[in-house]
Give the backbone structure.
Amino acid sequence: MIGNKIALARKKMNISQAQLAESMFVSPQAVGKWERGESMPDIITLNRLAELLEVDLNYFSERFGNQRNEKQSEEININRDPEYPGIIKKKTSWDLSQQNLTDSDFSGLKNLHDKLSSTNIQRCSFVGSDLSRLILTNNHIGNCDFSSSDISYSQIQKSMLSKNTFNHCSLRNSRFLRSFVEGCDFTRADLAETEFKSGGFSKNNIKDAQLKGTSFIETAIQDIVFEGRLDECRFEQCSFYNSKFQNTTIRNTFFKNNKKFKRVQFINCKVDKLTFAFLKNNLADLSGITLIED
């Protein structure tokens, strides 16, 4: 049973149910139900558990990634080649969904769209690829390099992204829903109009990233340093753990109903009047904040 495997791995790590629950951003009761077999974690939760318990995802289910999508089979064109009437032409339809991909180079790849869903991708390179309008669901992606790739207008759902490199990437107008993004490098990435909702955003490097119209909604934000400029961003119903805004100019940014917000540090920050009002209403520590003169 998956519950027994969770309990065994947790005990080997010498951590309690409460400690595991805190790292997973769930209640200790939820962990107890998993271990007793009263409820079943979904795939994104299993991805997160595998990371925290330092086990391979296959530890929970050997079937993961072994399924084959029917679209992978060759589609036979019934029209015969007019030059060689005795030969049936074949058209290959490839699909990388529901695979285990490791140590592979896909740099410069184009037009993947929905061909990577439910795939375990580890230590792969997608440098300089056109992945715009990509659709990912139930993915586990770790230690991959997406530098200088276009991932704009994409949908990433119920997925775990850990220790990936997104330097100089465009993630503009992309949406992360119920996904956990951890330990990734977004240096100089374009995150304008990008939305992170109902998931986690932790231990990521966002130095010189473009944050304009970026939204964090119902997101656990942990070990993050916001620097530079934030324009027209949104933080609503988020939980903050060991995060701070440092040397940051914040304009027209919305803060509402965020948890543990008193613990957030503001160091040498400048804000406009509207943002200041939102921060004050959210009971932020305003000691490191100065108003921008109109």
